[in-house]
Structures are given as C-alpha cells and as structure tokens.
Amino acid sequence: MRLIGTFCALAIFVQSVVAFPSFLHNRDIDLSHLSREIDSVLARVPAEDLAKLRRDASLQKRSTFSESQLIDVSGVHAYAPPTAGQTRGPCPGLNVLANHGYFDRSGVVTFTQSVSALTSVLNLGIDTAIALVTYSIAIIGDPIALTWSIGGSYPSSIPLILPRPGGIDASHNNYESDASVTRGDSYLHNGDVWSVQLATFKKLYALQDGPDADYTKDVLIQHRKNTFDYSVQNNPHFFFAPFSGLVVATAAHNFVAYFFANHSAEKPDGYLDQKNLKSFFGITGDTIDTLVYNYGTERIPDNWYKAPNPYSLVDVVTEILESIQANPEVGAIGGNTGTVNSFVGVNLGDLTGGVINSQNLLQGNNIFCFAWAAARAGLPTALSGVTSLLGNVLNLLDTKLAPYLPALACPAIDEFNLSLFNQFPGYTQH
After folding, report:
1. Which molecular function term from Gene Ontology is one that the record holds (predicted)?
2. Which CATH class for the 4-428 domain?
3. What is the model's pLDDT at position 195?
4. Contact 417, 12 (CB under 8 A)
C-alpha cells in the first residue's frame, strides 16, 4: 500500500524549494531520527483515537461541543506580531501558530513542536499533521535537524554541506501555487507569494454580507472557482500543477472554512463570521472599503473554540473531490500559454502513461493515487536527489501510518511525461 504519499503535503499548507539537490544526490540521509520522532508522537496518541482514523475517517460524524475546545491566547500564548528576524509566510494558519507561540516565534519549527501545535490548536488529525510536517522537512527543511520554515530561508545545521533550506516562500509551483486563497500569483506580483492581495481577500469577503455572514465550505468552493478563473483571465503565465495546484491550492480553500471557524454549544458545526475571517488573515477595517492588510499580524480571535473532530487525510481528499465535482474546471492541470485566457489542459492519460485519465480521476481512490504519485515524483521540479529523499520519506510514512488508515489499492504510475508542461511559460518559473 502506498497511501501516505498521497497526502504528504496537502494544505496547508505548503511548500518547497529544492535546497540541497547535489548533497542528496550523492549521499543517503539517515532517517532513523525522524523514524524515532514519529514513533514518539504516535505513542502519545490514545489507541482509540488511532483506531478511529481507520473506521471513522470522514467528517460525516456528529459534532459536539465542549469547553475543552477553547484555545488559550493568554500568557505565553498571547498574540505578538513578528519582530526583526522572525519569518512568516503564505499560510495564515501557520502564521497564527507562530504569532501565539504555539510554533517557535522565529517561524522555524521542529518536527515535534509542529505536530503538537497543529493537532492541539487547529485539530488536524495526527495522520495529517505527521504527513504534512514530515514532507515539509524533506522538501523545504533541514532533514538533519528535523526543522522547517513557515516563511523564508534559514541557516542549515551543516552550513558547509547543506545549503540554506528555502522555506515556504521559495516553493512556487512545488507547493505554493498560483490561484491561492488570498495570496497573489508569482508572475503578477514579482515573486511575492507570501503577502495577502487585498483585492483577492475583498472578493472572498464580499461573498457574504450582514450579521449572519458565514464563510462555509460552499462559500469557499465558490471562491476556489473565482480564484482559478481570475488567474486564467489575468495571468499569461498561470500554471496549475498536479500537486501544488490541483491538490494543495484546492485543499487550502477548504481549510479556511474548517480550521478558522469558531464553535459554540448553539453552533457545534462551526461558523466563520467576518470578524474572525479578518483576524486570521491579518485584516482590519469595519467595511469592505476600509479594509487594510497588515503583514504578519494573523491572530487567533479571543474566545475561539477549535473544531470538535480531527481533520484526517481522508477528509482532506474528500473535500478536494467535492470542490472538483462542484466546479470541474478546477480539476484541470495545465496553464496559460503566454497570453491571458489561453488555458490548455494537459491530457492526464498522456501525463501518466494511460494509468489515470480525466474519466477515471474522480473514481474510487484514483485521486489519492494520482496525488501520491505526483508527490513522489516531486512535480513539477523532478530533481533526482530530492525525489530520492522523497521516496525514502514516503516509504517511511507508509510504514508508520498505514496501520491506522483505510487500505487503498493504487495502480502503479511508473513515470510522468513532464515534456507536456514545456508549453507553459509558468512551468519554468519555480
């Protein structure tokens, strides 16, 4: 079974410039430290909770409410914006964890601290958190120190051997993508993919109005279509990659509705009003015309209660499928060819050697399998050293998490025909 690679980097959040290909190409990274860290984290999770991943890995479950869902934003977890030398990046969920001290406030985070914060504050499933963090370390972090950056680059643990890990900021087309929730396309904003583009945020904000505004999953699915259409219509170098676009950018829209919603006894399923939406994106202002973005100021609202149910890897992909089924165009892979409104979709059968095609992508487990294969291939930047490390990391994740996840039978995708991407100028801009 090759399940875990499917999910390895879904969401968030995140990431990845290839920071050390020559080193990885010539040497094997010892993953025993990472293996022990994963074992240690899993050992602290109650057996019953792990069992639920397999038998109840769906959001279709009864929501309950408890005061234990309240997140502490006082004392050591009081909000503080980043100071000089502290990095923040494209993912608001990661930025708030650093601004409240659940992540190291520097923005450079360890494996254990990352998993702990993601599960306890945002209620990611333990499977989702381990996969996300492990993949992030492999792609944009330091595999020796087991650290990664939520924003810019930072010194490596072996400066004369490992160059500086790049961080999420430098991951365009590998993890960060065009047509994101509020950040701008790289080509349109001179490479700035970490700042909120206020015009994009306002389009999301305007989808709801009045005292009953609630940014539900359906609202974010509509916003997913809008951001995709905007990039097609305005960015001649728009590129939508198999992993960073189809999977990560689509999942990130769904994350907003699930992870930022507040909860109460009256609304145990959650609600995301305009006040809380602005808080999580670092936006101030009372009306749409007075909104202002303040870089790095994302914060958890006072009296904010997290979701009652962990968000598993199966939940991630289930909601991606819902987005594509609602708006099939956002399931395309391809890009503009140098002018606006020139989007060309790549034939999935040609890309995968006929294993996955547009007719069967949404059938059964195929989108899981396709995402896994794309992650393993390191698309779109398939550098041999990094994909070798990714293969080892994904094998490790398979071994560690497979017992707790539903079984899948994935068809083998032996290789991707990357030459199909050469027609897209945005493909080479990573």
Report:
1. peroxidase activity
2. mainly alpha
3. 96
4. no
